[in-house]
User: What shape does this take?
Amino acid sequence: MTRSWLLMGLMVFGWSTINQVPSAYPEPYRPTDDAQVLERLSFKVTDPAAREIKGLRADLRNDPHHLESAVQLATRYIEQGRSEGDPRFLGQAQAILAPWWNEQTPPVSTILLRATIRQNAHEFDGALADLDQVLDRQPTNAQAWLTKASILQIQARYDEARRACQRLARLAASHVLLGCLSDLAGMTGQSAKSQELLRQVLSNSDLSSRERIWLATILAETAARTGAIREAEQSFSEAFKVGVKDQYLLSAYADYLLDQRRYQDIIFLLQSETRADGLLLRLALAEQALELPAFQNHTAELAARFAASRERGTTVHVREEARFTLALLHDAKQALPLAQTNWNVQREPADARILLESALAAGNRAAAQPVLDWLNRNHVEDFRLRQLAKQIQEALF
Amino acid sequence: MRILLVIAWLLLSLPAWAHKPSDSYLSLSIQDDRIEGQWDIALRDLADAIGLDDDGNGQLTWGEVRNKHDEIKTYALSRLALSADQQACATQLLEQLIDHHTDGAYSVLRFRSDCDGPIERLAVDYRLLFDIDAQHKGLLRLTQDGQTSTAIFSKESPTHEFVIAQRSRWNESLQFIHEGIWHIWLGFDHVLFLLALLLPAVLIRAEGRWQAAGEFSSTCWNVLSIVTAFTVAHSLTLSLAALDVVRLPSRLVESTIAASVVLAGLGNLYPLMTSRRWMIAFGFGLIHGFGFAAVLTDLGLPYDSLLLSLVSFNVGVEIGQLAIVSTFLPLAYLLRRSWSYPRLVLTGGSLAVIAIALVWFTERAFDLQLFPL
Assistant: This one.
C-alpha cells in the first residue's frame, strides 16, 4: 500500500522534472477546421475607408503616375497607420509615392509626405532636409513649418523649433500655433502661461476631434509634469470624452496612472490593448506591480517582439526596449546603453527619464550627465526629472 | 489639410507601433544540389497583395486561405528566384501550413529547389511585396553544413549572393559525432535505461539480498558486458533503420523504449535475472537503436556520405555513453558499502525511473498529453 503511494508521489515528481524541459517553439501546422479564424484585417469590404482606398488604388493601377490620386491615397494610408498603430500603412504610402521618391525635385506634396514617412522611421535628418526643400520653394507652407518644429523639438533644438512655430502665426489657425508653442513651453520654463492659453482654446467648441485630443493631451502632460494632478486628470478626461481612439493618448494616460500607482485602472484601460508594444509594456508594468500571473506571459511576449524588431535591424523601439529592460527585466547594465542610444536620437522628457533611471540603477553618474546638462540648460519643468537628477547627484557611487 | 497638419505632429510622438512592420521569414538549407526552403509570409500581407478575404468580413479563416493556395503559390514563387552558378534552380512547392509569429498568423510555404549540380554560388533574388509596401523586408536564414548565415532583403537590396563552402568530410563527421553525444545526453529515456541497468552493477545478489561487490575488476567486467551488449544491439538496429532495411512505426518504438525503462527499473526491485543483465541490455538495446535512427533521419542524412555519418553518429553516441558510465561507476563503487546505496540509491532511484518512464509510456502508447509540456 505504502509502495503504491510512493509510486504515485514519484510519478508526480517525475512529471515535474520532465516539465522543467522548455517547450519547443511552436511548429507550423495545418488547421483542421475551415471556420477557424486565423487573422483579423484592418478593413471589412463595407467600411467607407476600404471603399475609398479601393477606388484610389484602382485609379493608380490605371495610371501609377497620377499625382493627385497618389497623394490622396498616401495621405489616407498615413492617417490609417496613425489610428491603427500599424506601420505597414507607412510602407504602403511609400510604395505609392515610388514614382517620385528618388526624383531630384519632386512635387512639393510628395516631399511633404516623404518627410512624414522619414520622420516616422526616425530618419530625422533626411526629413528635415525634405522640409527645407519644401520651404525653399513654398515659404508659406504651414504643414512644413509645423512638421519641422516638431522634429526640432524632439532633437531638443528648442530655439529653432520656436522660430519654426512662430512662422505659423499668419499661416494657420491660432490654436495650431498655440499647440506648436505650448509643447515647447514646458521644456523652456514657460508652462504656466501656455497652460493658461491652452485652457482658453479648449473652451472653444470649434476644434476638430483630433485637434481637441491633441491640445488636451499636451495640457494634461504639461500639468502632470508640474505636479498639477487634478488639472492633468481633468484634461485627460476631456481628451477621452472626444471618443476617438488614440494610441498616443492611451499611452500618455497609462504613464500618468503608473506614476500615480493606480495600477488597477491601467489594467482596466489596457487589458484589451495587447497588440501595441507600447501599451502592452505599460500593462505588464501594472501587472508586475499587482503581482498578477499574466505578467509572466506579457513579459515573454514583449521580449519576443523586441527580438523580432532587432532582427529586422530597426531602432524605432529603443525607448520602449530600454524601459522594458530596466523596469521588467531589471537589468540596468543592458538598459543603460539602450537608453543612451535612444537619447542620441530623440530627447523628450520620456527619453530623459529612462536614461536617468537606468544611470541611477546602474550606478553610473557620467552616463546621466548629458541629461543633467539638458535639464539645466533649458529650464525643463518636470518635477520627476528634477527628483531623479537630485538623487543621482546625491548618490554615493 | 488641417487634419494632416495635426497628424504630422502626432506621428512624431507616437509611442510605439501596435504592429511590426511587414517582414517575411525565409530559411534555406543547402544540401549539395538541393535547397530545402521554408517561407513564412504574413497573411495580412498576402491579403493586401492578392486578396484573401472572400466574404469581406475583415476576418481570414483557414477555409479562405486554403481556397487561395494556388494563388498564394503562384504569387510567392514568382517573386523568389534561386540560382546556382547562374543557372536557375527549379522550385517546387511541397506544402502550405500556418504558423503564428509575434504579430499574427503567417502562411508557411515549404518548398524544394533542385539545381543543376552541387551549389557553389547561390544567388537569391527576392521581390516579394516591395511594389506595394516599400518598407517590407525579407529576413533570410541560410544553413549549410550546420553553419547559419543571415541576410536582409529590402527594396534597396533585393539580391544577395552566397559562396557555398565545399563540405569538408571531417567537419561533417565531427558534426554527427557532436549530434550523437548530445542525443544520448538529452535523450533522457536512453540515459535512464542505462542507469537503471547499471545501478545494481556494484552489488551482488546473494541469499535474497544485495551485498557490496568485492573487487573493482569484476564490477568493471560486469559494467563492460552490459554497456557492450547495449552498444552492439543499438548499433545494429540503428544501421538497419538508417539504411532503410527495417522500418518500425515510431509510436511503437517510442512506447517500447519507455516500457524498457519501466522493466529495467522493475528488474532492480524484483531481481529475477541478476547474472545475465547483459541479455536485457542487448534485447532492449535493439529497440533503442530504432529510436536513435529516428533522430538521425530528422537530421537529414547526406546520401553521398551515408556510412560516414552513420558511423560518426554512432561514435558520438558511444562517447556520450562512456562519459555517463565513467561518471557513474566510480561514484557507485565508492558508495556501494554504505547503508544508503541499496536502499536509497538502488530502490529509490529505480522507483523514480519507473515513475518517469510510466508517464512516458502512457503518453506515447496512447498518444495522450498527460501533462502539458
